[in-house]
């Protein structure tokens, strides 16, 4: 049993839902990212999604686009992100999920990427713009190396496609709650509970909801029917607003603690 499956099993036994915060690696620099991850892990994050910066992040709204720009300017590369993961793996036991785009990952080669990810302790990989049928070798390589390829479904996903995704994903299925890019919203999108119910009829894989979630009240609502909530832009906004690393770390930690409390 991998770390992701084990974590969901533990949460289920405690009657809790997973909180999955997202950070962009290297925003504003890699040492600060390491300190942020350690802080939010202590504050209650159950899994942590670490974004690999990319120059053309099509699924991202302005907040995470800016974070990628800052990270790239600070010299963040995929290999340096692997170094970050290696350091973190020695200090925390939360599952660590890499989120990124195919150009960045495939530039290493499918098997080389899987080798490197396994060696530093990556638990799961979300490749936003790579459907599983487009590069079977990539997904096969991850599974062979004990890494969960985490697939995404959306409001426009058909029933037949949903069945395929639920069968092929590992760890959990990431449900994108809206037809749009990432970014904090004042209200959660309509129809999410019905969509999660549709997935439940097909599979017992854990379902986590992301895109647009920004408050404890919103994640609590998601926690009524889903297995977890992913919060990214709202957390990245807090980091961006801080003038120095110290306030960014303390504010991010406090925010994550309030989100986790809403899922207990």
Task: Describe the model.
- This protein has 264 residues and is an alpha/beta fold.
- It has one domain (3-262): TIM Barrel, CATH 3.20.20.70.
- Helix content is 50%, strand content 14%.
- It is built from 12 helices and 9 strands.
- It has helices spanning 3-14, 30-43, 62-73, 78-89, 102-106, 110-120, 136-144, 159-168, 192-202, 216-223, 233-241, 245-262; strands at 18-24, 48-51, 96-100, 124-127, 148-149, 152-153, 173-176, 207-210, 228-231.
- The protein has a 9-stranded parallel sheet with strand order 5-4-3-2-1-9-8-7-6.
- Helix 2 (30-43) links the parallel strand 1 and strand 2.
- Helix 2 packs parallel to helix 4 (78-89) and helix 4 runs parallel beside helix 6.
- The protein is globular, with a radius of gyration of 17 Å.
- The mean pLDDT is 94.
Radius of gyration: 17 Å
| Residues in β-strands, percent | 5-15%
CATH superfamily: Aldolase class I
Query: What spatial order of strands do you see in the largest sheet?
Result: 5-4-3-2-1-9-8-7-6
Mean pLDDT: 94
At the first level of CATH, the class is Alpha Beta
Residues in helix, % = 40-55%
* Beginning-to-end CA distance, first to last residue: 24 Å
Per the CATH scheme, the topology name is TIM Barrel
The succession of helices and strands, N to C, reads HEHEHHEHHEHEEHEHEHEHH
Keywords, separated by commas or semicolons:
12 helices, 50% helix, 264 residues, TIM Barrel, alpha/beta
């Amino acid at each position: 049993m991998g770390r992701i499956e084990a974590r969901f099993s533990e949460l289920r036994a405690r009657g809790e839902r997973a909180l999955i915060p997202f950070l962009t690696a290297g925003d504003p620099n890699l040492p600060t990212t390491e300190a942020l991850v350690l802080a939010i892990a202590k504050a209650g994050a159950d899994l942590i999604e670490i974004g690999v910066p990319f120059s053309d992040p099509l699924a991202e709204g302005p907040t995470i686009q800016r974070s990628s720009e800052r990270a790239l300017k600070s010299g963040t590369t995929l290999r340096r992100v692997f170094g970050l993961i290696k350091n973190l793996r020695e200090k925390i036991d939360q599952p660590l999920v890499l989120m990124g785009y195919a150009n960045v990952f495939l530039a290493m080669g499918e098997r080389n990427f899987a080798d490197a990810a396994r060696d530093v302790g990556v638990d799961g990989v979300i490749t936003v713009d790579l459907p599983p049928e487009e590069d079977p070798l990539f997904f096969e390589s991850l599974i062979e190396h004990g890494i969960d390829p985490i697939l995404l479904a959306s409001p426009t996903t058909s029933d037949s496609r949903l069945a395929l995704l639920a069968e092929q994903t590992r760890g959990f299925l990431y449900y994108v709650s809206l037809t749009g890019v990432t970014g904090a919203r004042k209200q959660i999108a309509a129809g999410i509970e019905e969509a999660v119910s549709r997935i439940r009829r097909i599979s017992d894989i854990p379902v986590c909801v992301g895109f647009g979630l920004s408050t404890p009240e919103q994640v609590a609502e998601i926690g009524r029917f889903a297995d977890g909530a992913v919060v990214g832009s709202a957390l990245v906004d807090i980091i961006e607003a801080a003038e120095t690393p110290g306030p960014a770390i303390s504010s991010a930690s406090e925010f994550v603690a309030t989100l986790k409390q809403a899922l207990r």
